[in-house]
Amino acid sequence: MKINLSGSERGNKVDILGKRKIWYTISLVIIGIGLLFLLINGLNLGIDFNGGTLMEFSFDHDVTTEQVRAVLQDIGIAEDSKIQHSEESGTNGIIIRAKTLDSEEIVTVDNAIKSEFDSAEMLRTEMVGPTIGRELRINALLAMLVASIAIVIYISFRFEFRFAAISIITLMHDVLITIGVFAILGREVNTPFVAALLTIVGYSINDTIVIFDRIRENMKLMHKVPFIKQANTAVVDTLPRSINTSITTLITILAIYFFGGASIQTFMLALFIGMFAGTYSSIFIASPLLVTWQERISK
Amino acid sequence: MRYKQKRRIKLIIILAIIAFAAFLYFQHGINLGLDLQGGAHIVLQAQPTEEREINDSVMTGILSVIERRVNQLGLSEPLIQREGSDRIIVELPAVDSPNEAINTIGRTAMLTFRNSSGEVLMTGEAVKDARADYDQYGRAVIAFTLTDSGSEQFADITRKYMGKKIGIYLDNEQLTNPTVQAVIEGKGQITGYESAQAAEKDAILIREGALPVPVEVIETRTVGPTLGQISIQKSIRAGLLGLLLVAIYMVFYYRFPGILAAVILAIYGLILMGTMAGLQATLTLPGIAGLILSIGMAVDANIIIFERIKDELKSGKTLRAAIDAGFKRAYTTIIDANVTTIMTALILAYFTSGTVRGFAVTLGIGIIVSMFTAFFVTRNVIDIFAGSKLLRENKSFGVRKG
User: In chain A, what residues touch B99 (CB-CB under 8 Å)?
Assistant: First the structure.
């Protein structure tokens, strides 16, 4: 067989699948730590899921959180409120997080801040009632579930069921790592985070399939060699693509993370972690699991 | 000669695609979401009362009252639509004081005339018109006129409560509580306003009538115009920087084909903008992220194709044969890999709303356009240069001799 000759030679030299127990261990440790933090601290759910109000103002000079707290004290909503600095506008920003306020109360806060500080400008106000929060949570889970089922069906149809089953394990791996790291960092989780998770799902599958596609091809072209070698050759041959694609994607994500503004940072952080995990898992988890699956069956 | 002709046709096809995309973009422009141009997104939910349950006619009633209020506030290009059985979504682009507007729009605004023990004597249905005005002392007031039957009713009431107090309430807020000094027919005044603006706000509510049932504001997202501007500037800068870095990497790794990839990427960007404009899709902040992500996918398609061509070259094929075989084998990979992502984007678009849906839609469009670009533009561009020395050189596609 002449095709992929030089690649196959490389495939003989670099043994990724033989060391699969090491890769499994690395992943399990990271997921384990993440789950531990998740159980102890939970996720830092933002107003999209828990309900609440967020208001952001900018000023032309430095305004302290104490000054803002004093204003909120006067209108009686200071107790349940968290006040922080933000750098969204490039000037001096303040973010107020409060319980779910009604429209009247929001206007009161808006006016109170503006009358106390002349330069105050309202950048954004978000209010999410408890019903919406619950719906968003349910819809996010539902979207994840439906997407997974659709993916299993498509891959079973185009490949084999075991490829589909392992794709799902791989994407759960990526999602768990992303959620775990967010639990460890204690970063706030909102709807964009869910969008990020779903993008990770899509990307993870995309990445895994490119390798599975090569394994499928090798199963036809190299039918005399054992499965582990077919799979290892596929992983090694697609390595340049896997690395190049993840580097170019991660470059763009990093560019947006650092220069795209604060409101998009959490989203980009989630994408970065997920895509990193996705590249790792498509090389070091997905194909090794296929080999493990094969071994269990032939025993 | 035949080859040259073919090449010319391919060049024309690419230029036609670019021209059409540019035409769509300049013809329609890109719709910006509320998070980018500033504005308010409000979700209202109708609350059933003891007398009234929520049905279609109640919802139509709420919708028309809210439409009239929004118009009276003088807001441009509002979007008011019903969602589900009991919800209404109001979108107000470029509104000056969004939080005030929301407060006005969401009020039940039931006007009642009550006696001192709180008993309702007359409601706002008796009021024909209400305007902000000044009384003889120059104080801001609301001057209201009554319907014919309302006029009779009010005359009876004022006769009966002569010398006593009658309170006028908007919902549970007392506007004024005057003592009746004469029998009043036809018209009256509500005093106690600090400014004509404050009087006008309530006048709108009284004039356009009460909502048939109360509504609850269950979600609001407002963005001031400054923040929208900042977001657009920042994300465009970040996106361009990302594109530039990717282009540099591609040229560094793939040499001349890398330059082609960078050009293809620019063409991809143009087709994408044209498609977004043609479909009148709305671009939101997460949508920009979706676009940038799809750039990653577009690059990926090119990487897959280049790597395949490289494999074929390594196996000893001529450049032309390697390009043919490389594309053929890359097709299935790209389709299988992208179909799953498109499915995820569709499902996400179905289950979510607002800005996240904007993300899913742009991601979906981006991936479809990236597949189109890979199959038509990349193929033609590579073919055009297949005869040139630049691609024939040994270092092309980064193949190392060996």
Answer: 103, 106-107, 110, 122, 125
Mean pLDDT, range A136-163, rounded to an integer: 86
Among B221, B228, B225, smallest CA distance to B42 is for B221
A52-128: which CATH topology? Answer: Alpha-Beta Plaits (3.30.70)
CB contact under 8 A, A241 and B345: no
How many whole angstroms separate alpha carbon B402 and alpha carbon B393?
15
| Domain total of chain B | 2
Q: Which residues of A touch B350 (CB under 8 A)?
A: 143
**B131-165: b (≥16 Cβ within 10 Å) or e:** ebbeeeeeebbbbbebeeebbebbeebbeebeeee
Residues 315-374 of B with CB under 8 A from A: 315-316, 329, 332-333, 336-341, 343-345, 347-348, 350-352, 354-356, 359-360, 363
Task: Scan residues 85-144 of A and list those with Cβ closer than 8 Å to B.
Answer: 88-90, 102-104, 106-107, 110, 121-129, 131-132, 139-140, 142-143
Query: For A80, phi and psi rounded to 5 degrees?
Result: -90, 10
3-class secondary-structure state, position B30: coil
Give the model's pLDDT for residue A5.
Answer: 42
> What residue in A sits closest to B249 (Cα-Cα)?
A248
Domain harbouring B103, CATH code: 3.30.1360.200
The ipTM, to two decimals, is 0.81
Tell me: do B362 and B308 sit in the same domain: yes
Report the distance separating Cα A243 and Cα B86, nearest Å.
Answer: 50
Among A163-167, A224-228, B163-167, B348-352, name the one with the lowest average pLDDT.
B348-352
Whether the predicted pLDDT of A9 surpasses 70: no
A5 and chain B in contact, CB less than 8 A: yes
Whole-number Å distance between alpha carbons of B25 and B126? 53
Domain containing residue B325 = 2-36+224-398
**What CATH class has A5-46+132-298?**
mainly alpha
- Closest Cα to residue A279, out of B201, B262, B296? B296
